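Late entry, evening session. Most of the bench is empty. Finally got around to the prediction I had been postponing all week. Sequence below, unchanged from the version circulated by S.P.
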Amino acid sequence: FDADLQYEYFNAVLINERDEEGNYLELGKEFILVPNDHFNNLPVNISLSDVQVPTNMYNKDPAIVNGVYWSESLNKVFVDNFDRDPSLIWQYFGSAKGFFRQYPGIKWEPDENGVIAFDCRNRKWYIQAATSPKDVVILVDVSGSMKGLRLTIAKQTVSSILDTLGDDDFFNIIAYNEELHYVEPCLNGTLVQADRANKEHFREHLDKLFAKGIGMLDIALNEAFNMLNEFNHTGQGSICSQAIMLITDGAVDTYDTIFAKYNWPDRKVRIFTYLIGREAAFADNLKWMACANKGFFTQISTLADVQENVMEYLHVLSRPKVIDQEHDVVWTEAYVDSTLADDQGLVLMTTVAMPVFSKQNETRSKGILLGVVGTDVPVKELLKTIPKYKLGIHGYAFAITNNGYILTHPELRPLALQVMSDFNSILVENKY
């Protein structure tokens, strides 16, 4: 790492952009783009990758620049892969620091507000490759001191945590003051799968929260630990990592007796604490709770701080994989990609991904995840590998991922065609 490193890279938003005097913008040098029929005639550069940085991050942050610099060596890897297998489409590296290197290089266009909200670390392929499946209980302080902006920041923090959960994860949200308030009362005492429908349902209920009374954190912690224990003993949920996310503006105690009862000495449940607001009076207690339970503490003062601070917990949950050198390959469920639509309509895709880490001793001891590498695979390419002539008239084949997602099956096709006829009912995953 070189804090003073100066390096000009191809920024996917700024490439080919000029200022009023006709000069190329900084990080926006000339980048040759040519329509390519293999990529649905999108203008791409098959000789180079380029880099997208989320709008809420500084393009020339030293951590970004250093990561972009050493990941330049992926250009040759991407090009060699494509030469060796011309059926490949998008190849990419999502950094734990937030930047996204993509091959072939392509220009990204901001929305009407000049924003690109895409953050690779929120994508299912990144989360599944970087972390193990997890059970999560989110505790939100709704005592009187959380009124106004603090409660707004807390709700946004919860929403950002939900963004980082995938179909392999299970969760619930409890608001607390003198009493416990399940955000969805019908799901009292249990966890639900973090699929898209459930997450959206809980987001809608977040708007109903309001602040009043006194925060009784001990009651909330007892409830969270009991729920996780019961859920784990029944064999439900992820049967893997467990965590409690605490979102509050302070804690008057360390609650060590509760942790001693439920979590020590094994510390199977990690505690992640998010201090809301600029005050640091109770920061020490929250730091202690996180550190004593293999978690992480962070302070969120403004809405702009939310996303980057929430991401920190993913780095912690990825440590066991890195330390154990687990290069697990994951496949996502099938999704629709609008950028490669062909004559037959939208294209069903799956993503194959795996974690990336250095083999240095420091990486092993500290568990430093560098990011996730992945490539998109059209489901029709998988179908080509099925030797249909060997199946016979009564035979059929289906593809299922290691996570249990069915990618293709004869009985799914009529349903898929019916769903695709109604564009509004499809989740279109558009990276650009």
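Two things to note before I forget:
The radius of gyration is 23 Å.
The first strand starts at residue 34 and ends at 36.
Will write this up properly tomorrow.
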